[in-house]
């Protein structure tokens, strides 16, 4: 496997845009050039290199628009949005780094400029939710922009944004004839970065508000509304579907049973704690908490996932509080409430998919388990090495489900 970025954490984040190449989010040479510019640099160098590339793309888009090259300008703005959004992941955490909010703001602005161009402009929308609004976008199906069509609600996870949702899946859905609804929920994108709203486990409240909104849209076939969640959305979307029965189909990529169980496995297998002593991570002995803290802080990637991302997204300041919070994010007692046909994905190398088989078995609704392999280039987290494959198979499945609805 070719390694582009010399820092392992930078490799994790810097290669995300490779998945977006088929959908206009990047080109391989640009990603490789950014990696070369970073070299042995730190997180600041990573940020600077992506921002420099994004600024260049945005300036090119401005120049193209000034000359009335609208198609080129649109493509360049949208690509710039990916580069801005890719820049800030290593500097996650609270207090919020002003570089993060600056890059996010530029990314949203570029995304909005790109979507506003062309024969069918797209503008941001506001989805009513508990006295405030959730930011979002309605993306119409290519060739069916003024027709009533089935719709997919795209639900992201821990740290991906609306821009990621757009390029990872919504472009493919739009090309297939589906309208799309993209949104930031609590703990995601603008809700976290700009408003400071943390993640919440009762995602059924979020999805109810989103479905209420999309049912009011005149171009949506209310009988054919699907919900797709990827990464942690593989928990959030099923949790949402467990309390929202107007959905006609659900896709969890991958099927994620809980947040806490992965940490529970660490406590049991790495630290030798009996399973009966790890039923509530928030109540662990302080000695075990301390050992976990040392372990997490000694591993750069674990530190990012737990301390930088986890604490911030969950709105906590310590490991015990974080672990206690993760116990709330579970499908226990909820899986059998899902009624609509459900697709669970499992990539062989995706740690988040460890419980996908058990999740699948717990479902009482019509269900399908779809496996992806390294041999297909789709064995990693959310099949990021081959999004074309996963999008094609998932949309085929969805075509089949919706064809059964009168």
Write up this protein.
- With 406 residues, the protein is an alpha/beta fold.
- An eight-stranded mixed β-sheet has the order 1-2-4-3-5-6-7-8, with helices on both faces.
- It contains 15 helices and eight strands.
- It has helices at residues 8-14, 28-38, 43-66, 70-86, 98-116, 162-176, 189-193, 203-215, 233-241, 260-270, 286-297, 300-314, 319-326, 356-362, 387-403, and strands spanning 124-129, 132-139, 149-155, 179-183, 220-230, 249-253, 342-347, 367-372.
- The termini are far apart.
Question: What's the quick description here?
Answer:
The chain is of the alpha/beta class and 406 residues long.
Topology:
Layout: H1 8-14, H2 28-38, H3 43-66, H4 70-86, H5 98-116, E1 124-129, E2 132-139, E3 149-155, H6 162-176, E4 179-183, H7 189-193, H8 203-215, E5 220-230, H9 233-241, E6 249-253, H10 260-270, H11 286-297, H12 300-314, H13 319-326, E7 342-347, H14 356-362, E8 367-372, H15 387-403
Parallel strand pairs: 3-4, 3-5, 5-6, 6-7, 7-8
Antiparallel strand pairs: 1-2, 2-4
Helix pairs in contact: 2-3, 3-4, 4-5, 6-15, 8-9
